[in-house]
Write a structure and sequence with these properties.
The complex is a heterodimer of chains A (122) and B (112). With 122 residues, chain A is mostly beta strands. In chain A, 0% of the residues lie in helices and 55% in strands. Chain A contains no helices and eleven strands. In chain A, strands 2, 4, 5, 6, 9, 10 and 11 form a seven-stranded mixed sheet that branches. In chain B, 0% of the residues lie in helices and 48% in strands. In chain B, the strands form two sheets. In chain B, strands 2, 4, 5, 6, 9, 10 and 11 form a seven-stranded mixed sheet that branches. Classes of the chains: A mainly beta (122), B mainly beta (112). Chains A and B meet through strand 5, strand 9 and strand 10 of A and strand 5, strand 9 and strand 10 of B.
């Protein structure tokens, strides 16, 4: 059974930093690209980072580029998201998601974790 | 960025009815390989999103045939036939053809 378990969320002040983790099990972690997606308190979903299966390639939207860094440790079956210069608008539930690929192209985020909550407030 | 617009925002239905949700993109979602990477998700209360449909019309593993997806280019539809209580929640479309990947705003399926 595919399982993704996020951790590391919490309350942080504006300008602060936080590192999220996502522990994967039930599949060959090193064979899949992975993403982080966040959901605002208003329930809007936003993709915030993607990393290739081997970790060589990473992608971000403009809203987090330069502030967020996605990484992975395939030996530990763990995905990470380092967040810095946090703003109030980064307040959200953060989900990690596995990606299926279609001949090298992203196909779908097929399994999601239950999320970890991040609140940015003074 | 591909802006995804879902309608309606809220969809009151009676159990057993058919429901239809629209998702429109601001640009074509057909990739250079000829495929269209538009997916549909259901988020039940208190849960994370679960994949229903991928690449416009393909049902994910375990998804019942009451759920069907269609469309092309910029216009897509999710149909749910014979709505059951377990289908209630918020439906989202997601495009992964263009970076950044973008979601629709969601459609809440609720009991009339």
């Amino acid at each position: 059974e595919v399982q993704l378990v996020e951790s590391g969320g919490g309350l942080v002040k504006p300008g602060g930093s936080l590192k999220l983790s996502c522990a994967a099990s039930g599949f060959t972690f090193s064979s899949y690209a992975m993403s982080w997606v966040r959901q605002s308190p208003e329930k809007r979903l936003e993709w915030v980072a993607e990393i290739s299966s081997g970790g060589s390639y990473t992608y971000y939207p403009d809203t987090v580029t330069g502030r967020f860094t996605i990484s992975r440790d395939n030996a530990k079956n763990t995905l990470y998201l380092e967040m810095s210069s946090l703003r109030s608008e980064d307040t959200a539930m953060y989900y990690c998601a596995r990606e299926r690929r279609d001949d090298g192209y992203p196909l779908a985020m097929d399994y999601w974790g239950q999320g970890t909550s991040v609140t940015v407030s003074s | 960025d591909a802006v995804m617009t879902q309608t309606p925002l809220s969809l009151p239905v009676s159990l057993g009815d058919q429901a239809s949700i629209s998702c429109r993109s601001s640009q074509s979602l057909e990739n250079s390989n000829g495929n269209t990477y538009l997916n549909w998700y259901l988020q039940k209360p208190g849960q994370s999103p679960q994949l229903l449909i991928y690449r416009v019309s393909n049902r994910f593993s375990g998804v019942l045939d009451r759920f069907s997806g269609s469309g092309s280019g910029t216009d897509f539809t999710l149909k749910i036939s014979r709505v059951e209580a377990e289908d209630l929640g918020v439906y989202f479309c997601l495009q992964v053809t263009h970076v950044p990947y973008t979601f629709g705003g969601g459609t809440k399926l609720e009991i009339k």
